[in-house]
Amino acid sequence: MLKKDINKYNTAQPSGRPMGRTDGETARAAGGTAHAVLTMFGKLLKTVLCICIITGCLVGLSVAAVIWSYHGVEMNASLASFKLKESSFMYVTDSLHIDSVDNAEWTQRLRYNAEEIRTRVESDFNRIVDVLNQKIALQSISAKGITADHMKRSAQFVADLLREVGVDTKVVQSHNPDGTPGAWEVIGSKNVSEDAPTVLLYAHHDVQPVPDPSVWNTDPFVGTEIDTRLYGRGAADDGGGIAIHSGALKALEDDLKVNIKVFIEGEEEMGSPSFIPFIEEHRDEFASDAIIVADSGNWSAEIPSLTTSLRGNTDIDVHVKALEHPVHSGQYGGPILDANTLAAMLISSMYDANGDLAVPGVASEEPVGGLQRDMDEATVRADAGIVESYRLAGTGSLAARLWTKPSVTVIGFDAHPVEGSFNVISPETTFRLSLRTAPNQRPEEAQEALAKFMVEHAPFGAEVWVDKLDNGMGWAMDPNAEATKDAMDAMEEAFGVAPVNKGEGGSIPFIPELQRIFPKAQVLVTGPEDPKANAHSPNESISLPSLKNNVITEALLLDKLGK
Asked: Is residue 357 a contact partner of residue 405, using CB atoms and an 8 Å limit?
């Protein structure tokens, strides 16, 4: 109320009798009191208003600072919740006091995703191991017939297993290029959103044969746990890959934020003859943004690895002929060398004095993505059972010699057995060469170069001709891809140590075929093996602690790919 409004009450005459002196003084006194009260109220109002403005500014600045520092956290006042930026999980708290949250608390909360997944995997791990034991017992040896009933039972087991973790699966029989029936394959999908990325999970359910069970320390088809390792045929290759997929999907359950497609192959150990026709036939069902191939291994049971490269492979048969028929070694030996000796001379001509392959046109490469850590020679010698006197062939890093440089192996040789040998000069022979090619070289090119070298270097003019056999392309990952970074981050979170990238000297020809058919997909090669796994060999095994960390890794990776 303004002062001029108050004054009117001091001068205005009320109706009725005239106001006396005493009454006027009283009125003026009352007016003065009212003025004082109103003045005090105005000051109080201004003070309260200032306090509110200052408090509002401080609160606003505080909130802004928190939002700036922790922009990955979405605040919800009604739920008092927070959501991790790179996670598909929502975690709700009873209260969230912004002014009392320190860096340690936030760090702990940011780690909650990995710890939650670890908790889920640990609670499910007995089931995962049981799955692996059941898979070992199935004896799914594709060499005994890829179309046989035991392979169909194996495929159905895997289909049922994945169906239990939410994947809509079915068993389908493939067809070979000539139209004949092929392997029993498992395919399936789980869709969460049309807008979500799609990830294809690959493994194979067939295993290698067991030629001589007596050289095993345990029954090869009964899962046997010894000192944190589970022994049995297929425990690592590739029952472990199937167990990883099952465990990761179980850990995520309703929190999965990517669409899933699965392809569990039934003839990988037989060279995947129907792989390409099957993929081409189901191209639309397998189209994806990322492909996880769980069929490789880690640096060790304790140190994870992302496989950076795979060598290619090509085979040739080389025929060497010196005579039209056998002759007596005593009568003609000397000027005439036997075909086996000529073959040995031809084989040795491929190498220089250091043991490096020296065939023009056969490429050599360095480790893809750079060499992070070289292989330990003592470990390699021990794992391979190398005799003490043998000096390792070749030059450069041991990793390059094992992963990305070419190598040739004589895998077959037609020669008379020592038992029953007699004194004749062998007129001709045939040997088979397996050439592991550098990851990025076309195997056809390397095959042609090797065949040409064999013919041109025929010793002493012997007749040499070559039959060209199968080819398999190598593969090299994209070290700069976003999915690659996600995979490495997931490995470090799961294992607690930084991963060491590694190549593989072996070949998995279907991986480059996948890359060819789906050129936009990021291919990530992981797996359950380690140097002690003995895949394809007696006493095959898998490290159970490493298996657990591999499951956690894949679950974290799927979560990251869905961000």
From this structure: yes
Residue 249 has pLDDT above 90, yes or no: yes
Which whole number is the average pLDDT over 526-537?
93
Mean pLDDT of 184-212: 96
Judge if pTM exceeds 0.85. Answer: no
373 to 27, 57, 314: CA distances (angstroms): 99, 54, 28
Q: Which residues pair with 188 in a beta bridge?
A: 169, 262
- Residue intervals of the chain classified under CATH 3.40.630.10 are 124-310+474-561
pLDDT at 73 over 80: no
Residue 6 CB contacts under 8 Å (≥ 6 apart), including other chains: 31, 34, 35, 38
In this prediction, residue 53 carries a pLDDT of 63
Architecture of domain 124-310+474-561: 3-Layer(aba) Sandwich (3.40)
Q: Quick one: pLDDT band at residue 96, thresholds 50, 70, 90?
A: very low
CA distances from 98 to 12, 101, 110 (A): 59, 6, 16
| Cα 524 to Cα 308: distance, rounded to the nearest angstrom | 9
Q: What are the residues whose beta carbons fall under 8 Å from the beta carbon of 114, sequence distance 6 or more? A: 493, 494, 552, 556
State how far the Cα of 291 lies from the Cα of 311, in Å rounded to an integer: 19
Using CA atoms, how far apart are residues 193 and 200, in angstroms rounded to an integer?
A: 15
Instruction: Count CB neighbours of 387 within 10 A.
Output: 6
User: Which residue from 552, 551, 528 is spatially nearest to 232, judged by alpha carbons?
Assistant: 528
Token pair of 440 as six digits: 């990025």
**pLDDT tens figures, 216-244:** 999 999 999 999 999 999 999 999 999 99
Q: What pLDDT is attached to residue 509?
A: 80
User: Average of pLDDT values for 405-427?
Assistant: 96
Residue-wise burial string across 210-243, b where 16 or more C-beta atoms lie within 10 A, e elsewhere: beeeeebebebbebbeeeebbbbbbbbbbbbbbb
Q: In this model, does residue 335 exceed pLDDT 80?
A: yes
What pLDDT, in 10s, does the model give residues 38-70?
555 555 556 655 565 665 655 555 555 544 444
**Looking at 63-175, which runs of residues are DSSP E strands?**
81-83, 90-92, 168-175
Distance CA 132, CA 242 (A): 8
Q: Give the Cα separation of 142 and 382 in Å (integer).
A: 31
Q: Where along the chain do the CATH 3.30.70.360 domains lie?
A: 313-384+396-467
DSSP string over 315-329? EEEEEEE--SS-EEH
The two tokens of residue 212 are: 């001589």
Domain with residues 313-384+396-467, CATH architecture:
2-Layer Sandwich (3.30)
The two tokens of residue 167 are 């994947």
Phi/psi of residue 121, nearest 5 degrees: -65, -45
Element at 456 (helix H, strand E): helix 443-456
Burial of 55 (0-12, 13-18, 19+ CB in 10 A): exposed
Alpha helices in 182-338 (DSSP H): 239-252, 275-281, 283-286, 329-332
Percent of the chain scoring above 70 in pLDDT: 80
Beta strands in 6-101 (DSSP E): 81-83, 90-92
Residue type, 257: K
